[in-house]
Design goal:
CATH topology of the largest domain: Dihydrodipicolinate Reductase, domain 2
Largest sheet: 9 strands, mixed
CATH class of the largest domain: Alpha Beta
Radius of gyration: 20 Å
Number of helices: 10
Mean pLDDT: 97
Helix content: 25-40%
Strand content: 15-25%
Distance between the termini: 33 Å
Number of domains: 2
Number of strands: 15
Length: about 325
């Protein structure tokens, strides 16, 4: 990846700052920013000496722009991506891809039509422990995945940002944290054939759920249990993968636990896997994106991955509303 690549950022909220930090670490130049709240764009531009665009179209017309991050609320991901796709500028779009399957399909169709590189920002695929676990699965150390249990939690007051507005977010914590979880299930286990879900408000008085529980099923071969919440003040973040030959556990910064460990059937000791040689997930994701942008090739996490996750999440909300299991066609 060459140094000094010229990139843009659309949407200058909290997640945009993470993109900005990773771009700086990788030596990329954020040349243009845009936000529907001019003050947000101006504050970011002042920090880095970037140009403030008056519109998405103006940002996409920036001379020499080589890539862009779309960090806006999900309901406008498609609209904000289209000008860049038409201009042939590679796009890294935050998750979830969109708030509806129809909008996600429209975006996927535009990517296919233009051929422009497009990456759905599922940064957990680049988490060092997830990379190492995927390697264990590829080497058949653990055998066939049978059951995945995952919780992404903690406490964040979301009452004052777009995540509490269903028109902008598409839902609450299930579409937010659960978007990563559903993608990780596909990445580590396989495409689910059925989903059932329940949602609730356990602590926060907001128009969307602050906790969601999804059960995923891959035919009669594997199951998944996913908890997505931002209302558990003391909450570890875990992935447990139970396989035909053994069990692996990923710990996300839980004190006293290894990043990744596994135990095989018939053995007494857990094996700790060293994950220290890999970059953290955000720089790792951004480095991959910029390399693909430079080479004009499609990244590892594609628009189709984003579309499939949107299908899972929309089906999960349908299940939560109807109280019935929903069949998936991915």
């Amino acid at each position: 990846m060459k140094q000094g690549m010229k990139v843009g950022i659309v949407g200058c909220g909290g997640i945009a700052r993470a993109h900005l930090g990773a771009y700086k670490e990788l030596g990329a130049q954020v040349a243009v920013v845009f936000d529907v709240v001019p003050a947000a764009a101006e504050a970011m531009a002042k920090d880095i000496g970037a140009k403030v665009a008056a519109s998405v179209e103006e940002a996409a017309a920036t001379p020499g722009l080589e890539a862009v991050s779309i960090c806006t609320p999900p309901a406008v991901h498609c609209d904000n991506s289209l000008p860049f796709l038409k201009a042939g500028i590679p796009v890294l779009c935050e998750k979830p891809l969109e708030v509806s399957v129809a909008s996600a399909r429209k975006l996927a169709a535009a990517v296919k039509k233009t051929g422009t590189p497009f990456m759905t920002a599922y940064c957990h695929r680049f988490h060092p422990a997830v990379i190492k676990l995927k390697e264990l699965l590829a080497a058949d150390v653990l055998g066939r995945p049978l059951l995945m249990r995952n919780i992404f939690g903690g406490y964040v007051d979301i009452s004052k940002n777009h995540r509490a507005n269903p028109k902008l977010s598409g839902g609450g914590t299930m579409v937010d944290n659960g978007s990563h979880s559903s993608d990780l299930f596909r990445f580590l286990v396989g495409d689910p054939t059925h989903v059932s879900a329940v949602t609730a408000n356990i602590m926060q008085d907001i128009p969307v759920e602050d906790i969601g529980l999804m059960h995923l099923q891959v035919g009669d071969k594997a199951l998944g249990e996913i908890v997505a919440t931002l209302s558990l003040p003391v909450c570890g973040n875990w992935i447990e993968l139970y396989c035909s030959k053994g069990t692996a556990v990923i710990s996300y910064w839980n004190e006293g636990h290894a990043d990744l460990s596994y135990k095989l059937a018939g053995t007494k000791e857990r094996v700790t896997v060293d994950c220290s040689g890999l970059p953290q997930r955000f720089p790792g994701q951004m480095a991959h994106f910029l390399e693909c942008a430079e080479k004009k090739c499609q990244p590892a996490t594609t628009v189709e991955d984003g579309l499939k996750a949107t299908k899972i999440l929309c089906a999960a909300y349908k299940s939560a509303q109807t109280g019935r299991r929903v069949k998936l066609s991915l």
